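INFO worker-7 received task bundle
INFO bundle size: 2
INFO processing item 0
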Amino acid sequence: MRTAFSLQLSAVDHRSKKVKDSPAFSHVEAIAPATSANLGAGFDVFGVALDALFDKVSVDVVKGNKKVQLFVNGRGSALIPTKPEENTAGIVAKALLKASRKNCGLIINIEKGIRAGSGLGSSAASAAASALAINEALGLGLTDKELIKFAALGEIAAAGVPHADNVSASIMGFFTAIVSHEPFEVVRFPMPENADFVIATPEIVLETRKARSVLPKHIGLSDAVHNVARAAAFVAGVLTNNLTLMGMGMNDLIAEPYRAGLIPGFLDVKKGALEAGAVGVAISGAGPSVLALVDASKNVESRVAEAMKEGFKVNGIHCEVLMTKPGPGARIDRREDR
């Protein structure tokens, strides 16, 4: 983590003199989409932006005050910390402000549209929107890759470690894959036009830290080979518009077997979705949401949705079902001049 941050600090400090001038805007608003990470075999590597749920972050620049103040409203906001050092957006804000060396403070307002603890990148969306808005407000001129590194620092608050799979998709949009950490490299591809998702979110909260804690410290060679092959299949499916290959790629032996027990009814939900016509099913990120990939041309979304609902229902769990597609990444929604 220290190495990644020092690279980012250098990137800001050694830009043109313009970086140290006064902030570019007094008020900036940005929105960032929900995401689903892993997508089966791509643990901590794959992510996809979802064109349905969003977090909105507004940033106000305060002169002569280097503090960060943070407020949270919206869905599940009562459970989200407002101390900057305990909030994903707050960590990002403090890091960017320090790196910018500007003599100002920031007031961050987060409007949650994505429920925390759902496995849909709630913490990442807040971090991504915060990074984008602050970059614009302070006139830092950071690239997407640099913004991702800062946004990934925010995930320390949710997961205990910085990780970039969700924030990469939330910032860049569509399908992203982290191909290297040192040096950091991420690629983005559009998904097939007929790739739709049905997502079932049960009324339980699963903390990312807990979901990561059950993962094995060591994995067997055969399981590693299995996941490499399936991850390759998923990417091949994305690049060749082959949903069958993508569905094969959603078969995971590294995280799913250990996390399945944390989601009551998961196996029933997965079985029902596949029987109803889904081409692939996986835990969305750390869970508890379950993501089903469907072929839009087959018109099976409603059947898959009902099957997933029933899978949770027979296990005594109510769930919400969402139908969505891959979508674009974070964007600036509004800005006001000083």
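INFO item 0 finished
INFO processing item 1
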Amino acid sequence: MGPYLIGCTLLVLAGVMKAARPDDTARALVRLMPTRFSALSQVRRMRTTVRIAATLEAGLGVVAAAVPRSASAALVAASYVVFAGVVAYARSRDGALASCGCFGTPDTPATLVHVVVDLALAITATLVATAAPTDGTIITALAHQPFDGVPLLVVSAVGAWLTYLTLTMLAALQAVRRTVGVAGGAVTHR
């Protein structure tokens, strides 16, 4: 349940950030659009699409965390499979320094770690979908945990924060490392 809550938290965080700042995500997606989708290939139109999709993403995260049932967990899993595909596609199109715009900022590079994290969260959500009860809420699920689930919530919050840092800051550091080499303690530019 902990990794599932991490995935739901990241959906809410990324959705809110993209809805508030859709431009960078819109630009990242426009670069990835095939030319046959010319109606969406304008940043202005894509901005609206990003805002709507981001709001749905955040809403899914809230509902899936509050009501962890098969249908909501399956939608979370499907979301992360799609995200993994988009990040992998961005890497194949624009190389290692491609931005996926996942958190509404231009400095979120599309990395292999990002793809792996997305797939791991998809697998976790799939496991929850197969074992989810048909009734109850997160409150009922937490009631069956030690100390009424408070440790699970704390660990999940810390895990979400660390995963966010992995997808953003670590990815940005990896991008810088690709552009600036370190040899024998001295910084050299490639």
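INFO item 1 finished
INFO post-check item 1: Strands lie at 180-183, 186-189.
INFO post-check item 1: Helices lie at 2-20, 22-32, 43-66, 70-94, 112-131, 138-143, 150-179.
INFO worker-7 idle
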